[in-house]
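Hey, can you fold this one?
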Amino acid sequence: MESVQTYSYRRPSSLAPGELDLETSGGTALRGPSGAGAHPRFFNGFLQRPGVAAAGLLAVAEVARTRYFQPADTAFRDPVVTSDGERLRFESFSVCGGVHLRLDVLSAGYDGDVVDHGTTNVDVNEPLRRLLSGVLDGSALHLAVGPDDVTVTTKTDAVVEKKVPLPERWVRGFGEIYVLTGDFEARAEIPAAEAARLLRSLPSQRRASGAFWFAPAGRSLRLVSRPTPGAVCLPAPQRLSAILPLLRFATGLRVYGPPVTGAGHPVASAWELTLPGMRLTATLSPDATRGFSGEGAVLDALASDTGAEDADLVSVLLAFEPRIDIAELAAGSGLTPARVRDALVRLGASGRVGRDLAEAASFHRELPFAGDVIERMNPRHGAARALVASGAVSVGRNQPGEVSALVSSGDHRHRVRLVGDRRSCTCPWFAKHQGSRGPCKHVLAVEQSVRGEI
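Sure. Predicted structure:
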């Protein structure tokens, strides 16, 4: 499902000799001198390593236009950029939704002024892509994100009206990644030369399928036949193709993943190139056929009775902090740290909070979607509420810590069991996914019915 947002660019983004001029579409600025404006200026300065930055921007733009599952020609979608006072973050999802790429230009990577804080979409058009591909490290590269004034460039000064479908699945993807990466830990840190050898040895076929498992081995990774404690999953390795051109600049590779068991089910992972003054992080869904938007990881956080109110309260306190401090938010809001974390997950579900694995911290971003988008984007949550409202849930006698219930859905009745943190249902959805893609609507309905009684 897509919500079409209309973005107005004063002119195409351009690259004049020595100056990169990125046009913004508008955006949200919560503090700073300009406030929210039609074309806010977030940053004005020089990038210290222009060749690296140009290659990173091209990688983000490449992911935004690529479908890794069933490759096909696709319409280009503009990356999202956030300025938080200490860095610029450029982000995109692949068209198939299974790859998220983020370029962080850190304070050591630029020399200039952060004029404002906020989030917007950036126009990286085809002429700019061609010009960026020729940028070398020896040249000076000036970056102006969101100019308010007319800059003399080699391009014709013009107003460009552009309708860009920013898919709701991008917003869902931001939320799912925020939850899925919550238990990620650094599994390996690999020197640049070994990282280049490892990544360039992976299968390159665009249609390659299956998951590879790697176990830490000294300062490298060793291919293993099954997951072992500390192992990391690389599902559909061809989806790392966008980061390969930056290996020549990399100073190392850090790999993140969740705890794994011997079951061998593919899981998501994140692959982070450390670059001079920058980081480039590729997060991959568990399978090339699975976009992040369908993982269902945010559903538990949405089920909280106080989640919406808590999220509204916490959102007022967010101001594009480079690192969100949960203790500070708890003190400012009067909520417990646990409720603050749940509120951040709900905000993440609407794209307003992201996670920086390198710093083990959350960060703030804003996207142009209405508050009701969360309910619309998570139909299982709404379907569960409808089941409860219609009286379809019948809870039987239960032992402490255990719930057994019947849920009528259409012509079928499904049995749901909740035992501690284990959940089961007799519906086809649960039989197929075994809870790996979030709870089914029947489990959610039972949990909503007995909340506070388990």
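The chain has a mean pLDDT of 78. Let me know if you want another pass with a different chain boundary.
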